Amino acid sequence: MRIETFTLGPLQTNAYLLTNTDSEGKERGIVIDPGMGPAKLLERIASVKLEAIVLTHAHFDHMAGVEAVRQAAGCPVYLHDLEAGWLVDPKLNGSARWPDVTQPITANPAEYALDEGQKLELIGEVFRVMHTPGHSPGSVSLLCGNELFSGDVLFRLSVGRTDLPGGRERDLYDSINRLYQELPESVNVYPGHGPRTTIGYEMANNPYVRKR
């Protein structure tokens, strides 16, 4: 599986394009968290058959590009049910709170719900959905083999903020400790902002949450 990163918008949000080549030589892919100003991402996916858009959560900097990508690719969107109403509501997705960054942003509802333990079979891979709340109530992390897409839960040497509506510090720390307990240290972590890291590196070095 090929992983490409597109850092989008004023908040430098990481969108990920994951692709495989099928038996006919056609690239098939999914997009995780298409954020603001997705022009480069749209240019890249013009030659890709997209099977899905998967959102780790529905804050505006992670979903602002949903409609542009969905219309270009004709693919469905997946989002945890606890944030089902956030795409259509600028107050819930946060865009109404940041007028210096963006106009209010809305998108049509997701076609499919994500839930704890769910397995998505996409582009010839299996993605395990881990419900990891704390940054937001419906935050999920997606595990595929040795690759984890953590949204705004775990960053390199940092963690997601919990002062936005629906955030809860205790839930966030519980979610991160769960990742530490359940995943091998070798797992690569692709966060919603900033550089890639590993579970082992964060267990040893993250000043906010270290392995207990």
Automatic annotation (TrEMBL):
Official protein name in the record: MBL fold metallo-hydrolase
Cited CDD domains: metallo-hydrolase-like_MBL-fold
Keywords, sorted A to Z: Hydrolase, Metal-binding, Zinc
Pfam families per record: Lactamase_B
Organism, scientific name: Paenibacillus thailandensis
Cofactor(s) required, per the database record: Zn(2+)
Task of the protein: Counteracts the endogenous Pycsar antiviral defense system. Phosphodiesterase that enables metal-dependent hydrolysis of host cyclic nucleotide Pycsar defense signals such as cCMP and cUMP.
Origin organism lineage: Bacteria, Bacillati, Bacillota, Bacilli, Bacillales
Reaction equations catalysed: 3',5'-cyclic UMP + H2O = UMP + H(+); 3',5'-cyclic CMP + H2O = CMP + H(+)
